[in-house]
């Protein structure tokens, strides 16, 4: 159970990395990991575009994934060969980072049973045509080193990472390769891989609004499901089309490969029916947006009036009881 949960987290993180919250952005990411004690392959590498796996390899596989049929250009085949070759290089440098981190954090003996070292590198293409690339390494989920592209150096996040950081920075050829990769190669690769058939698939969100009565208020939830790809934006607009703050859940996977999320807003009972509340969904499968207006359910209005009636009855009952008690006290005198 533990290993399955951890592996699910890796898949989820791989899908989310570098999204920057923009449904229209494209994110080419590579996730590399070396682990011990998690019932995972000793080494794994996954390349994703948004949430679509383009390339996967791990230490249990005898060979690397062959070039897919849709990648039939000379440039595309060069990039695929480069990915295959760099899988061996990535395994070497990540294993070095793992070994250094285990030693520097003194994760030996009994503590050596459960450790993981990860590399996360992404390139984001924004709708305005600009790019952003980054690379970071983590040890047991915490920042270890990161790449400063402008200065062409690695930066240690903790003192235990200084030794490995210095080892990487001293290798000038490796620094040239890694900075060239995140400045140029990954950008070219993103522009080629964005034409993958699985990346172009779009599924329109289904939107449903439901209510939950609470004391003095109604919680209105906008449930959005069945959409693909994963990136989505859900907002509530209140009176005069002003954004309304509300609780939002993570984007979660459905069994059919699509995704779902929800966002809730709390409306005071006295405002029910007075103002218009709309759920607005932005997704790459639709040109503009999907706007759904909350129509108060009859039972909800009935519940509001019943609540007010109960309060009035309580007040009347309390007043009647007070009068009767006062009369009894006067009679006793």
TrEMBL record:
<protein>
    <recommendedName>
        <fullName>Ig-like domain-containing protein</fullName>
    </recommendedName>
</protein>
<dbReference type="InterPro" id="IPR007110">
    <property type="entry name" value="Ig-like_dom"/>
</dbReference>
<dbReference type="Pfam" id="PF07654">
    <property type="entry name" value="C1-set"/>
</dbReference>
<keyword id="KW-1133">Transmembrane helix</keyword>
<dbReference type="Pfam" id="PF00129">
    <property type="entry name" value="MHC_I"/>
</dbReference>
<dbReference type="InterPro" id="IPR011162">
    <property type="entry name" value="MHC_I/II-like_Ag-recog"/>
</dbReference>
<dbReference type="InterPro" id="IPR003597">
    <property type="entry name" value="Ig_C1-set"/>
</dbReference>
<dbReference type="InterPro" id="IPR050208">
    <property type="entry name" value="MHC_class-I_related"/>
</dbReference>
<dbReference type="InterPro" id="IPR036179">
    <property type="entry name" value="Ig-like_dom_sf"/>
</dbReference>
<dbReference type="GO" id="GO:0006955">
    <property type="term" value="P:immune response"/>
</dbReference>
<keyword id="KW-0812">Transmembrane</keyword>
<dbReference type="GO" id="GO:0009897">
    <property type="term" value="C:external side of plasma membrane"/>
</dbReference>
<dbReference type="GO" id="GO:0005615">
    <property type="term" value="C:extracellular space"/>
</dbReference>
<dbReference type="InterPro" id="IPR011161">
    <property type="entry name" value="MHC_I-like_Ag-recog"/>
</dbReference>
<dbReference type="InterPro" id="IPR037055">
    <property type="entry name" value="MHC_I-like_Ag-recog_sf"/>
</dbReference>
<keyword id="KW-0472">Membrane</keyword>
<keyword id="KW-0325">Glycoprotein</keyword>
<feature type="signal peptide">
    <location>
        <begin position="1"/>
        <end position="21"/>
    </location>
</feature>
<feature type="domain" description="Ig-like">
    <location>
        <begin position="197"/>
        <end position="291"/>
    </location>
</feature>
<dbReference type="InterPro" id="IPR013783">
    <property type="entry name" value="Ig-like_fold"/>
</dbReference>
<feature type="transmembrane region" description="Helical">
    <location>
        <begin position="302"/>
        <end position="324"/>
    </location>
</feature>
<keyword id="KW-0732">Signal</keyword>
